[in-house]
């Protein structure tokens, strides 16, 4: 019979390394997460949807807001210029894009808070491909019903963490618009139709 003994200090070291690895894996997980753990994120890009017209996929797309409008029914429509996503889900500004898409939610998004030029990442379902225009040019927009979303601050050096369904986030940092350091408490929202959750960082 093989008798293997492990010294207590070595066991403690192994446990510490395991906890650190688990923590690091959580730090780099893409956000936002789907509200349902059973959801499978598709790798299809907006331009692929435009070409083949495929709908029904759950996607995690993000980019820079080009326009936002609110309908008479209280819905919000956001046009986004897609960008590649970093490992944490934040859009990467490298002058590349996979096309534009439209994100819709029954939640009211205030255009004085969700503003043009800022970045947003979302998880949702591709519902349709809709005809529209970019300037005077005709354009086909994939339309995504928002499940969850993340609205990113302009500060490139700040970190982002989202707890389960949008809980547990606290950020300390310098606010270039106010000129001093302050504590950020993001607001959490739920959409009546899509059941979406959102985190707004300001």
Low-confidence stretches: 21-27, 157-194
CATH architecture: Beta Barrel
What is the oligomeric state here?
Answer: single chain
Name the helicity range. Answer: 10-25%
Figure out the total of helices.
2
Average pLDDT metric? 76
The span between the termini is 62 Å
The share of residues in extended strands comes to 35-45%
Instruction: Give the overall shape, derived from the CA principal axes.
Output: globular
Largest sheet: 5 strands, mixed, barrel
Q: What's the SSE pattern?
A: HEHEEEEEEEEE
CATH superfamily: Nucleic acid-binding proteins
Number of strands: 10
Give a nutshell description of this structure.
The chain has two helices and ten strands. It is mainly beta.
Q: Could you describe the 3D structure shown?
A:
The longest helix has 20 residues. It is globular, with a radius of gyration of 20 Å. The chain has 202 residues and is mainly β. The chain has a single domain, classed as Nucleic acid-binding proteins (OB fold (Dihydrolipoamide Acetyltransferase, E2P)).
């Amino acid at each position: 019979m093989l008798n293997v003994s492990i010294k207590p200090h070595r066991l403690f070291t192994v446990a510490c390394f395991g906890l650190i690895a688990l923590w690091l894996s959580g730090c780099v997980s893409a956000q936002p997460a789907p509200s349902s753990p059973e959801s499978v994120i598709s790798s299809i890009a907006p331009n692929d949807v435009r070409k083949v017209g495929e709908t029904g996929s759950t996607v995690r797309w993000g980019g820079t807001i080009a326009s936002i409008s609110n309908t008479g029914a209280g819905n919000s429509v956001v046009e986004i210029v897609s960008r590649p996503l970093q490992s944490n889900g934040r859009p990467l500004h490298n002058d590349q894009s996979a096309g534009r898409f439209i994100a819709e939610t029954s939640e009211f998004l205030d255009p004085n808070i969700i503003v043009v030029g800022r970045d947003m990442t979302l998880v949702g379902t591709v519902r349709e491909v809709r005809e529209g225009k970019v300037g005077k040019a005709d354009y086909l927009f994939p339309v995504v019903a928002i499940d969850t979303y993340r609205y990113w601050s302009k500060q490139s050096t700040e970190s982002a963490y989202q707890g389960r369904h949008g809980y547990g986030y606290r950020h300390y940092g310098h606010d270039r618009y106010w000129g001093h350091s302050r504590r950020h408490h993001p607001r959490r929202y739920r959409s009546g139709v899509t059941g979406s959750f959102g985190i707004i960082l300001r």
